[in-house]
Q: What sequence folds into this?
């Protein structure tokens, strides 16, 4: 039986899920996953940093903040031609969604107009388009929707009560406001967070509870494991127990049964066995391609080999959250190679 979508989760309920014996949690998550998705299918997205570094915000995890010396080479907004070149390669490599990220606190209207052009070009290639540009006004969200944007990524990042320890230059409510503008414009939301930032299990439950109690469950829920970058304040944070990471994925699957849950940043530091456990726990999306925004990701050949070994196949375009239309011709083949 498909699970009922709830938006009234209490903190103790979420904590109780996270605390289940591991076999029980995995079995429940896998059952809910199968009720809503084909568990062989994994949605593949490719990321491109269209404007890198020099960000005025102080997000303690982020190599792109101008406040930290991470040795990052900043660059201005790419041209539409540069974006088309990367999106074409991503499509050839088997990605179905192309996500464009910019290191802005919030874009200027002229930036949004340029990104709107990029969105049109990505859509013309037959890819789903996603953007993550920082805080958006209602009008800016409308402009992006009119350009054909499918998803807007804006993460809650962590629990409300831990947020101020990580970011001081904007409020949690600012994030909720942007998500509201995105929903009101008719865009699908991609919204998740980061774990492994030194938060407690209670705070991981707080992130998941807040995500699940949004007015609509996000279409995509990226669960990032902190990528520790030298020079950022969170570099050197104690590593999260890998099983706790898997538990977080499983709880996300149970709380948001029809959402695509992305095993997001941090895969380059995970072994294949841990990634396989995440897929069993209900993760059904990855970032695909050798780079995230500024840090590394497993190389394409390694992901293709992992898909092959696990019998996973790339998911075709997600038309509605949880309503997927598989390309049956792909059977168990991994994404085609770019070369
Ligand atoms: N500047 C925009 C914003 O903050 O919304 C968009 C880009 S920002 C890099 C997108 C997301 O990437 C952040 O919200 C955060 O969740 C994630 N992220 C950034 N640095 C990360 C890191 N070192 N490890 C894991 N996730 C990270
Ligand atoms: C998300 O939740 N994770 C992606 C995407 N949304 C934009 C970003 C991960 C960034 C990891 C650090 C970096 O490469 O700069
Ligand atoms: Fe800027 Fe986004 Fe990085 Fe925060 S996460 S410093 S807003 S690029």
A:
């Amino acid at each position: 039986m498909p699970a009922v979508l709830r938006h009234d989760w209490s903190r103790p309920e979420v904590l109780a899920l996270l605390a289940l014996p591991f076999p029980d949690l995995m079995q429940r998550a896998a059952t809910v996953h199968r009720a809503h998705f084909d568990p062989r299918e994994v949605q593949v997205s490719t990321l491109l940093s269209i404007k890198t570094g020099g960000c005025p915000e102080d997000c303690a995890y982020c190599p792109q903040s101008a406040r930290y010396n991470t040795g990052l080479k900043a660059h201005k907004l790419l041209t539409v031609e540069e974006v088309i070149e990367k999106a074409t390669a991503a499509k050839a490599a088997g990605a179905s969604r192309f996500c464009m990220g910019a290191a802005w606190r919030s874009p200027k209207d002229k930036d949004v107009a340029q990104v709107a052009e990029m969105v049109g070009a990505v859509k013309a290639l037959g890819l789903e388009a996603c953007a993550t540009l920082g805080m958006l006004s209602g009008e800016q969200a409308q402009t992006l929707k009119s350009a054909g944007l499918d998803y807007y990524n804006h993460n809650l990042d962590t629990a409300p009560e831990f947020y101020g320890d990580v970011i001081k230059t904007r409020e949690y409510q600012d994030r909720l406001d942007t998500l509201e503008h995105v929903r009101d414009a008719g865009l699908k939301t991609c919204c998740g967070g980061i774990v492994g930032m030194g938060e407690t299990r209670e705070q991981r439950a707080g992130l998941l509870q807040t995500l699940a109690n949004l007015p609509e469950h996000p279409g995509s829920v990226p669960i990032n494991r902190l990528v520790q970058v030298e020079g950022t304040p969170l570099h050197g944070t104690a590593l999260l127990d890998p099983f706790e990471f898997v538990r977080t994925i499983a709880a996300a699957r149970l709380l948001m049964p029809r959402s695509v849950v992305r095993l997001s940043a941090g895969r380059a530091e995970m072994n294949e066995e841990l990634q396989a456990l995440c897929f069993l726990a209900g993760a059904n999306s990855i970032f695909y391609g050798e780079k995230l925004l500024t840090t590394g990701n497993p190389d394409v050949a390694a992901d293709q080999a992992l898909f092959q070994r696990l019998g996973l196949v790339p998911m075709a375009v997600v038309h509605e959250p949880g309503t997927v239309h598989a390309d049956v011709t792909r059977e168990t083949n991994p994404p085609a190679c770019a070369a």
